[in-house]
Amino acid sequence: MKKILGILKKVFTGTYARGFVSIYLVAAVVGATLLKLPVSVQSGVELSWVDALFVSASGLSTTGLTPVVVKDTFTIFGQTVLAFIIQFGGIGLIMMVAIFWLAVRKKIGFRERGMMMTDQNQLSQEGIVRFVRNVLIVIFTIEIIAFTIMSGYLFFSGTFALREALFQSFFLTISLFTNAGFDIAPGADSFAMFANDYFMQTLAMSLMFMGAMGFWPLAELKEFVVAKMNGEKFKFSIFVKLLVGLHLSIWLLSALLLFVVERGDFLAGKGFFEGLYYTLFMSLTTRNAGFSTMDVGDFSSSTHVLFVMLMFLGSSPNSAGGGIRTTTLFVILLTLRSFARGYDQIVFRERSIKAETIRKAFIALVMAGFLVVTGTFLLTIFENHSTKEIVFEVTSAFGTTGLSLGVTADSATRWVSKLVLVFVMFVGRVGVVAFLLMFRPERKIKGYVQYPEMDVIVG
Question: Is 62 a residue whose pLDDT tops 50?
């Protein structure tokens, strides 16, 4: 028995990556169990274990895909459990555990720092505890401010009574900032009830943007505010400027493309502000959030293709979002440019990007493509939906976006298809590279034999 436990410990917690992934697996099962409790499910409603696991994994990965209507399936208790699952998943389970470690003044050792580094996609363990502390302070500050503003607005505008306004704001603030896409709207219509409410849309886009641009900018934002309060100078790092610049540029570029494609279709006849907000909101939410101010099926097929590309890309690394991440695309584009021009190094701002980073970027792209294609292939076997609908659904799961063309919500969708989507969401949340690191041995194998090189024709 002792030997079996030792083997299991080695398999699931033998390395930082294995421990990190195992914690998410356990959390998904625990979340499903809590959602399956009688106190979580409304009277007369049946919730299968597969659906409970699906919702738990979707919440933990901040995806938003769900086979059930949250408002009509779960009680207030169940909705609160889901909100906490989303919060844990969006911030990162290891970071939430770090709150407890910091609160009880537990000494955070080498192993704990390694898991925090893996969870937050950091390059080293140096300063990781300070980073986590700064990020948590900023995140909870933003959420408290947003909750206060939103609850006051929803109540005084007459949208909801006080109690409902408070709970809607509590759930929405978490779901928006973590880019989860879950809603408890009375009509289960995501953000469609606020289609003409530009204040709520502006607040929502602000939360979605901050939650998806990466936690590094949030950490440095806290240091910037402290420095200004002390009358000191502060300079944002190149990495933070890159993250924010990429996130903002891709948002505006995709909004422009969406406007060009839909100006004669969905946006035809829309007023200036109406068309502007539809364009800005939908081009931002597609990158990870999954909220929508209209039926996504109303867009043209060209826009659906654009959305698939944006969902596959995702948000910034070290954020609440998924996808291959913006910096992955950036490094790949830099590499292609350097190869085409015959450069020996991949250079950005007079700094050379490490070969290992370039290798990880291409691995992430290839494995993400393989995962989406495989998931699509499997669902085309099990489901009767069109290929376009299935590609959209699988990419939405991988990008932890949550937008859907109806595959997940279809009552005819088989349990095996749901498990495929759960796996895709899971890998999308933990990251392709982190998932592959699970299979590395505990100790790096050092080769003592240098083999001769060979050439292979490629391309």
Answer: yes
In the predicted structure, residue 332 carries a pLDDT above the cut 70:
yes
> Among residues 275, 80, 114, 96, which one has the least CA distance to residue 184?
80
CA–CA gap between residue 303 and residue 446 (Å, rounded): 49
CA distance 398 to 450: 39
Q: Is the dihedral angle over the CA atoms 426, 428, 432, 434 positive or is it negative? A: negative
pLDDT tens for 173-221 read 999 999 999 999 888 888 999 999 999 999 999 999 998 888 888 888 8
Is there a contact between 279 and 255 (Cβ–Cβ < 8 Å)?
Answer: yes
How far is residue 426 CA from its own chain's centroid? 10
- pTM value surpassing 0.90: no
Q: Distance from CA of residue 46 to its chain's centroid?
A: 29
* Under 8 Å between Cβ of 420 and 427: no
Which of the residue ranges 8-22, 178-192, 335-349, 385-399 would you say has the lowest mean pLDDT?
Answer: 8-22
Q: CA–CA separation, 367 vs 387, rounded Å? A: 21
Predicted confidence (pLDDT) per residue in 229-273, tens digit: 888 888 888 888 888 999 999 999 999 999 999 998 999 988 888
Q: Among 116-120, 203-207, 310-314, 393-397, name the one with the lowest average pLDDT.
A: 116-120
Closest by CA to 279, choosing from 253, 301, 243, 244, is 253
Nearest-5° Cα angle at 417, 416 to 423: 90
- Please give the distance of CA 50 from its chain centroid, rounded to a whole number: 22
